[in-house]
Amino acid sequence: MDEEVRHTDYGDDTQAVEAHAASARFDPQTGRRLKRVAKIVAMVFGVAFLLVSIDRLIKAHGVARATREAAAAPPLVEVITAQPVGTLQRLVLPGYTAAWHASTIYARVDGYVDKWFVDIGDHVHAGQVLALIETPDLDAELAAARAQLKADEATVLARRAETEFARTTYVRWRDSPQGVVSEQEREEKKAAYDSSVARQRSAEADAVLAQARIDKYQAMTQFKKVTAPYDGVITVRDIDIGNLVTAGSTAATTPLYVMTQNDPIRVFVDAPQGVAEELINGNTPVQVQTSAGVLRDYSGNVARTSQALNPQARTLRVEVDIPNSKAEFVPGMYLKVGFGLPPRGLIQVPAAALVFRASGPQVARVDSAGTISFRDVTIGRDDGSVVELSSGVAPGDRLVLNVSSQIEPGERVRAQNIPAAKPAPLASAER
What we know:
Layout: H1 10-19, H2 28-72, E1 76-81, E2 83-84, E3 89-98, E4 101-105, E5 111-116, E6 123-124, E7 129-134, H3 136-175, H4 183-221, E8 225-227, E9 232-237, E10 244-245, E11 257-261, E12 265-272, H5 276-281, E13 286-290, E14 295-298, E15 304-309, E16 315-322, E17 334-341, E18 347-350, E19 354-357, E20 360-366, E21 372-376, E22 378-382, E23 386-391, E24 398-401, E25 414-417
Parallel strand pairs: 1-25
Antiparallel strand pairs: 1-24, 2-18, 3-12, 3-17, 4-11, 5-7, 5-10, 6-9, 7-8, 9-11, 12-16, 13-14, 13-17, 15-16, 18-23, 19-20, 20-21, 20-24, 22-23
């Protein structure tokens, strides 16, 4: 079999390469062009370096000049204008709500929980049955007391019959003619009669005591029904069916329920000593704000105060009573309470305007020429962010805020006026 021969172009390509040999000669024009391009690139980089250096030098001179000018210029300070206190100052303090009544309900009898009818969050009425307690021991004691009463009543009847027989016997012997019976026999019959009367009275007393025991146990059986003492809301339930309950309210005794009455609701605030006099003796309007930012106005006065300062915190306990028919408040809420305090003719400044030094509180005042001077002041009332001064400052004085410790009296400053923040007006509403 003849083999098939495959033709390729390899031979033709080889002949073409051998016919055209590569040249090793270098073109002079190419070298000159390369040198020219290198010179242009070097010139561009040199010009760029020169421009960057000039720009840096100009900026450095500008920064140095600005630094010298800033160092030579008076320091810039923020200035506030002192304002007189208005007709009504708003003092906002934290407070919290508390129930009008809060009761922990314990069992009055020993037994087992048979049924419970209300749970947390339920609204109950006075006298409503909250739970039933099964009391087998108490029932047995009541039955025994009733049986004892019947026995004592039977004993009373027997003693009465004995007393009547002893009385008639004594009467017969007493009325017998002289010489028929002896005096000793008369005295014996009289003693027997007196003894029977005493036994009758003892039996009657035992019957009364038995009746008292019955009355006691019957009264105790009324506590098998756990009832609500007033209209309110159940906040805690600590019982379940079958639980063993023990009468009493000791630390080892578990309560059955806890309930509160929340209409009206109390708001307690600890006010600082500086406003104690106004809150004790004044007719102070109140505004209440919840932590959610919802305003609830209360047009009225402080309900009562503790009339004494806490010796540790130097604060006055203040109570405000708020109607709560719509259940807008619950016990334990955090509130902000605003009091409308009467003016004292004082000057109001931000707390940032005060400087506390060894000699006492001071303010830094700036005159029309921009010169700083320090003045001693007396704090009349401190509201935290705002302070009322009773001396040392006049209305219209320009005071520096957050003055630096490096600023000395008599130094010139540049004042930048900051508008005074006006306190929010105390709104009034119908109670």
